[in-house]
Amino acid sequence: MRELALHVLDIVQNSVEAQASRVEIAVEEDVAAGFLKITIADDGRGMDEEMVRKVQDPFVTTRRTRRVGMGLPLLASAARQTGGTVTVESAPGRGTVVTATFGLHHLDRAPLGDMAATVAVILAGNPGLALRYRHRRGDSEFVFDTREIERQAGPVPWGDPQAAAWTRKTVAEALRALEPLGHGPGNAGPVKTGGGT
Amino acid sequence: MKSLEELEKIRKQAQEALKVREGQKPVRIVVAMGTCGIAAGAREVMTTILEELAARSLSDVSVTQTGCMGLCEQEPLVTVEKPGQPAVTYGNINAERARRIVAQHLVNDAVVGEWVVATKR
Ligand SMILES: Nc1ncnc2c1ncn2[C@@H]1O[C@H](COP(=O)(O)OP(=O)(O)OP(=O)(O)O)[C@@H](O)[C@H]1O
Ligand SMILES: [Mg+2]
Description:
The complex is a heterodimer. By secondary structure, chain A is of the alpha+beta class. Chain A has helices at 4-17, 49-54, 71-80, 115-125, 146-153, 161-177; strands spanning 22-30, 35-42, 86-91, 95-103, 130-137, 140-145.
């Protein structure tokens, strides 16, 4: 995938297909430690132990339209090529947590990409989903939480095209307000932040 | 917070649109969002369709997602379902083509024949 944000969209799609009603996305950019960590947690149907063990193998899928599942294997190889890892924790009826770490300064790391578009598309396509997106960069952080927004503003028609535009704009502005990524210790050059596409 | 006030307006507009189309079956646009679709550009396609609907104030259309449809080589796939008409699936759609589908199929009721990969009653 050209952007890490596209992997996020894809992994959340797994949560949706597993009947999740709540999804939490957390992105953490730690310049000092030199890693970028993405966590996607859901309250969907979960997987048994054997499935969790096999799920990073592309020949494992429960979809019937084709015999290979590509989402998790693609994420795993994207993480590994930057010196990172992917872990999957899950249990039947207990939901799933997918954690991917990437070498923040690694040349083979795809840019973070357009997280605002990813969040807007998830919500527009799944208007009943409770979504929380937390993004931390160094000491700055923001949280976009649909339940919190609805607590303050009342019910939101998330599937409405105008609402999708609002989501995209709001998340993009919050991302721009985070402190710039700056230089990592021992990092040869400027680090490209993932901005829009 | 100003952005929360904007939501209030969006909700009111959506409620009014709902009243107008009361009892009518909505037009549905379905974007395939399996890994194959996402890798091929389905997010941009869906973003463009939403923008186009917002710009044209077409509020009687619902945009939804589905997983892999088994036509991975022809992703991104977009299906238009109008009540009383066969569902039309378009393949190899990009942002520009998505805009044309909205203008031609949704607004003017003319199927864009050249990109159709499947139709279903
Ligand atoms: N969050 C989740 N909850 C429950 N099951 C999951 C979850 N994520 C993945 N799985 C299971 O793991 C399988 C493999 O997932 P993966 O994303 O690799 O491929 P896929 O979703 O089947 O197909 P593709 O992603 O290529 O469209 C899924 O078919 C599903 O059975
Ligand atoms: Mg998948």
